[in-house]
Design goal:
By secondary structure, the protein is mostly beta strands. The protein has helices at 71-74, 136-144, 239-242, 329-334, and strands at residues 7-12, 26-30, 38-40, 45-54, 63-67, 76-82, 85-91, 93-100, 106-111, 116-118, 128-135, 152-157, 161-165, 174-176, 179-181, 185-186, 200-201, 223-227, 231-232, 245-254, 269-272, 280-283, 286-292, 294-297, 300-301, 318-326, 340-348.
C-alpha cells in the first residue's frame, strides 16, 4: 500500500518541537490508484480496493453506515477526456465490505440499496476492506471505447461516505486524510484531486484482458512538495501584526504533468501542527505558553488541519505559493517574553 501523504515541514525560529498525542481511534487509509483486479465471480463483477479501515480495539464498531445516494442508483462514474473536453460515463456498481470474524472466517457483504452493515463477531485485530465493484460486462463495454482510441480514461469516482457506530446512536471517531472526528468519511477519502474532486482517483490496471496496455488510460499523478526555506527565523514578531510577513515559498511539483490529466484539476493540501488543535508558537522555556498565529498562502488564510487549495487551475509542472504569517496585537500584548518555536507540517491529500 502506498502512503496517503507526501509531507513537507517548516520550522519557525530554527528549532522545532512536536508533541504527538496518544489517541485511540479507527484509521481509514485509502489506496493510490483504482486497480480493477478484484474478482467476484458469483456476481460477475470486478473491482478495486478503495481503502482499509484499521479498527480501534478499545472502541469496536457494531455498524457501518453509508451516507449519500445509493450506489445502485448513482452508479460508478468514469471520467475521460475527449480531446480537451471532460466527459463521464456511468457503470452499475456496488460497495463490497470485507472483514474478518472472530472465528477466523472472512465475511463479505454488498451494500447497494442497503445502506448499513451490522458487523457479526468483528475481529478488530484485522482491517476492514472497502471495495468498489462494477458489473464486468458493462465495464468491459466501457473499456472498449478506449481501445487504441484518442479518448483517454482518467478517473473513477463515487460519492458515498461512511460512518461508524458502536450502537444505534453513538458515533465513533475516525481518522483519515480528510481529518479526525465523527464526520462522514469519503470512501474515496481525499484521493488525487480528479475531475469529481476529492472523491475521484486515477485509473490503474484496468484488470481485463491480455491487451490491457492498449487501453488509453492516463498515468497516475506524481507530486512532491518543498519549502524554499525550511528554517525560518523571525527577528521581530511585531512586523507580523499589521500585515502578514512572508516566511517562505511552498512549491508543488507535478513530476509527470505532460502525461496526466491534472492541468485543470485542483490539488488540495492540509496544514497542521502535530499534537495541537490550532497554529501556535511555543515558548522555548515553557511549552505550555503559546502565541497564536495565522498562516496565509498567496494572501488567503489557511484553515487549520482542513483541505485547502493554494493553487488554482490550470496547474503547471511547478506551482509556487507564498506562505506568510500574522499575529494579533492583542495576543502579542499578552505574550510572555522569550524565544518561541513551532513546526508546521503540510500534507498533500492525494494518493488513493
Amino acid at each position: 500500500m502506498k502512503p496517503i501523504f507526501r509531507i513537507a515541514c517548516i520550522n519557525f525560529l530554527l528549532l522545532s518541537f512536536c508533541l504527538a498525542p496518544v489517541i485511540a481511534i479507527s484509521t481509514y487509509t485509502t489506496q493510490d490508484a483504482a486497480d480493477f483486479l478484484y474478482d467476484q465471480w458469483q456476481n460477475n463483477s470486478i473491482g478495486f480496493l478503495a481503502g482499509t479501515l484499521a479498527i480501534d480495539p478499545d472502541h469496536i464498531p457494531t455498524t457501518l453506515e453509508l451516507v449519500g445516494p445509493s450506489i445502485a442508483v448513482a452508479k460508478v462514474q468514469f471520467y475521460y477526456l475527449d480531446h480537451q473536453d471532460l466527459e463521464s460515463a456511468n457503470v452499475e456498481g456496488t460497495i463490497l465490505i470485507r472483514y474478518s470474524r472472530t472465528d477466523g472466517n472472512l465475511a463479505y457483504t454488498y451494500l447497494s440499496s442497503q445502506k448499513t452493515l451490522m458487523f457479526y463477531h468483528l475481529d478488530a485485530t484485522k482491517p476492514v476492506g472497502i471495495y468498489i465493484m462494477v458489473q464486468k460486462n458493462q465495464y468491459r463495454n466501457l473499456l472498449n471505447n478506449f481501445w487504441l482510441s484518442s479518448l483517454q480514461l482518467v478517473g473513477v469516482g463515487v460519492q458515498q461516505y461512511f460512518l461508524l457506530h458502536d450502537d444505534d446512536t453513538t458515533l465513533l471517531p475516525t481518522l483519515s486524510n480528510q481529518g479526525e472526528g465523527t464526520n462522514p468519511v469519503p470512501i474515496l477519502g481525499g484521493g488525487a484531486s480528479g475531475p469529481a474532486g476529492i472523491n475521484t482517483i486515477p485509473i490503474g490496471d484496468p484488470g481485463l484482458g491480455f491487451w490491457e496496455f492498449l487501453y488509453n488510460i492516463a498515468d497516475a499523478p506524481s507530486y512532491s512538495l518543498c519549502f524554499s526555506n525550511e528554517d525560518v527565523c523571525i527577528e521581530d514578531i511585531n512586523d507580523a501584526v499589521d500585515l502578514p510577513i512572508e516566511l517562505t515559498t511552498l512549491t508543488l511539483t507535478v513530476e509527470n504533468l505532460e502525461n496526466t490529466y491534472l492541468g485543470m484539476n485542483q490539488v488540495t493540501v492540509r496544514f497542521s501542527q502535530t499534537g495541537y488543535p490550532s497554529f501556535r508558537l511555543l515558548l522555548q522555556t515553557d511549552f505550555s505558553v503559546i502565541l497564536p498565529f495565522k498562516l496565509y498562502a498567496n494572501q488567503c488564510e489557511i484553515p487549520y488541519n482542513s483541505p485547502f487549495n493554494p493553487w488554482q487551475p490550470p496547474m503547471s509542472a511547478c506551482n509556487p505559493a507564498s506562505i506568510s504569517m500574522g499575529v494579533s496585537q492583542q495576543d502579542l500584548d499578552h505574550a510572555a517574553e522569550g524565544t518561541y518555536r513551532a513546526t508546521i507540517t503540510v500534507e498533500i491529500l492525494s494518493g488513493l
